Amino acid sequence: MDDQLERLNRLPLRDDLRGQHPYGAPQIDVPIQLNVNENTYGVPQDVQEAIVEAVREVAAGLNRYPDREFTALREALAEYLGHGLGAEQLWAANGSNEVLQQLLQAFGGPGRSVLSFPPTYSMYPLLASGTGTAYIKGERAEDFGLSAESAARQVREHAPSIVILCSPNNPTGTALGLDVVEAVYAAGEESQTVVIVDEAYAEFAHTGTQSALTLLPGRPRLVVSRTMSKAFALAGARLGYLAAAPEVVDALRLVRLPYHLSAVTQATALAALRHRTSLMAEVEAIKGQRDRIVRELAGLGLSPAASDSNFVFVRGFEDPRRIWEGLLESGIIVRDVGIPGSLRITAGTEAETTAFLDRLRELLVTA
Ligand SMILES: *Cc1c(COP(=O)(O)O)cnc(C)c1O
């Protein structure tokens, strides 16, 4: 390994990539995987069959490049989101990570900057470095909250090219009020800051939580990013998307690779959208397990954060590493996000959640 690192260091790698580490949630094949916020329910049989059928239909034409504009998929995504959106306001790529990368390629880059508010999604600084965009770490309150005044002040102070607001936030799980998005957008008026709201977990939010989609009319620098990787139980298919003004979509056409969305991906995503009622049937059950984790961990004297997502961020562990390892010994993997005294747990099926809670109770008494 050290040998390989040495060989890497001898390559003429970009200076700003030297010494960096790749995105690294461990992929360990254990029975109960509660570490990367996937939907742990498998794809239902009827949806599997619809996907296979849709892929079969395009297979004969795979000698040709796919529809570069993935028009049918954009129409279906617009219809799913509602809010009066049209296909010309939708864009998609291989996961919302690629969508975010394209946004940074178009609106960031050398000499420009992106601001986000850690602890937040660990990919933001990596996407910044990959695109040569300076990454600015914003500040949150002690309890990891972010008020409209604080966020707006930091935008005025740094005048970044881009701000990314993650709502519900990963890893803390809490959704932002729309007042924060409005204030950040207004504060970025002078610097013409592009405001991205990453709503990867929007479908898990408590009833009544408003989406930033409602703020799109009249805000040409606002972008709302979504994904089929979480609520749609389709992380393996790689489909993320955004809604924004049509001119933002035009900007992304300048940086996307030609034919970036394969015909297989387009067919898969379309079939999934057509069968979304079946595919998303377990979202309510997952929310129930999420609320159960919050309730039960609070009862154990830990400090779970309020969550609008399919995971729970928990503080108050004396030795999170010991807990993480103890769970792993029992075939359960959760996420150590590197924040002292904390762990992040994905809400799985009822049986998975029960197994996690039972083992955790054991580990806490043997402390
Ligand atoms: C999981 C996640 C995504 C999804 O990424 P994909 O590339 O669509 O799989 C995006 N943003 C956040 C904050 C996430 O946690």
Automatic annotation (TrEMBL):
Protein name: Histidinol-phosphate aminotransferase
Enzyme class: transferase
This protein's record includes keyword Hydrolase: no
Keyword set includes Glycoprotein: no
Superkingdom to which the source organism belongs: Bacteria
Subunit structure of this chain's protein: Homodimer.
One Pfam entry name: Aminotran_1_2
Organism: Sinomonas halotolerans
UniProt similarity note: Belongs to the class-II pyridoxal-phosphate-dependent aminotransferase family. Histidinol-phosphate aminotransferase subfamily.
Sequence positions bearing N6-(pyridoxal phosphate)lysine: 230
